[in-house]
Model the fold of this input.
Amino acid sequence: MKRAAALVLVILAAFTITISCSSDPGGGGGGLFDMGGEKTYFDWDMLFLVMGDTCPKGFAGSGSGLSLEVLPGASLPIQGLGLYPGVRGKTDGTQWEATIPEVKTLHFSILGEAGVVSEGDQVKVHFIYKAAADAENGDYFLARISDGDRFLYAAKLRGGAMDANVASEADYSYTAQADGFGLQFIIGLSGPADVFYLDELEIYVNDVLVWADYFEAGDYTQPQFLPDAGNPVFVRVAALPYHQLGEFGLSADDVLEGANSLKVTGGRYFTMYGQGGEFDGFAGVILNFHDPDPLDPYIGESMAMKQSSSYIGTYKGYDDVPADCAEEGSLMIAEDPSGNADISGVWTIQISGYCDAGGGTQEEFLMQYSDLDGTYALGDPVSVAKFHTLFLGYPFADPYGNAFSSPIGLTMGESGVLILSWEYMTNPMMAQFAGVYDKSSGVIQGQVLGALPKADGSPCVLIEGQSMFQATIDKSHDVPPPGAAP
Done:
């Protein structure tokens, strides 16, 4: 693993040197990159994970976030997560560019995946919507259904379709390929004058209306359990930016149906540009992010290696003038994902890395989190269940008795991240395990960022790029989701 990590650093350094030394960044032949050529569209799911606090103008803070109310036992500093599902840009294979708006997501799902929708059922999703944006700076809307490990789209709006300002009905039907149901309304709006309305959501299974939300009353910014007579619990969760600028809630303005509709307005946007390519069988990208405010721009950068159809790398963001707020962590990208991997099960994690020992020195860190006695039980490291759109585990202790709170996981395409949080002398600590999952082998492997406890409980601050993990996910045990009832 150490050799692989070192190779990653060498490749990324090669990218940096080539780009920095290029006298013709827009084209030219030779070298690592072949610039120019016809540009095509790409769709990415992007996840910024920041260690600790985020900056008000940082790029994690304007993506879809999470709320702790639906995560029993979690102590994750949740503001450090920003998800941008389905953002679109252009590439010629060596250069990437996109304009990315503030994103808000409304999730609907069945807790525990069982009941209501089973494999082979005929499902219909109905809703009313209206887009009244200026169709600039990346504005978009997606109604994305999760059916097992595949995505289906009940609606897609981009470009000129975002300024239609006309109420439309969506009726989308499909045959379920897996048990369970999940629906995401993903709304990306770049400015305060950009508006989107949503109303009259109805879900039919085999021609029977099993659940509906008519957006008439309640606080839609808060997670809500929505029981329906005779059916398992439905969950509605708004994933809103931690540093949200736009509005999100019920409104009587320009109602689509009834007395109220969900109204969403835009906030801000940022630009992304980057370069990448292949070298000696490895591929990667260097990305730059820029807030357009000329008086106080915020800047970010990432170097990420490609693994299968995902990019995984580091992220740093900072104010240009004045330099008063910085953030760092990791960036994960799923390239044109057709669905999300299932990383639920019992994890056996092996870690090989190095701790920052201060004074420019380092010490080796080897650790394994696994079932200690060979007999599976809840609370054994590391039990993770699917919990609507996330993966949530149970508190556990490492072989030295160091206690962890509930692990939290998230997948995008084939890539996945598991976050372990703990405390040292009342100070919150966490580590991010970001990697790519191979369904055929049941193995996920990648890099670790953050801090983990040593044998004596003191923190090992892992050195960026030199700490890797490999985990085998055993799916032979039934891991029920924590908090399976409201």
The chain is about 5% helix and 50% strand. Residues 1-9, 15-35, 68-77 have pLDDT under 50 and may be disordered. The CA atoms of residues 355 and 460 lie 5 Å apart.
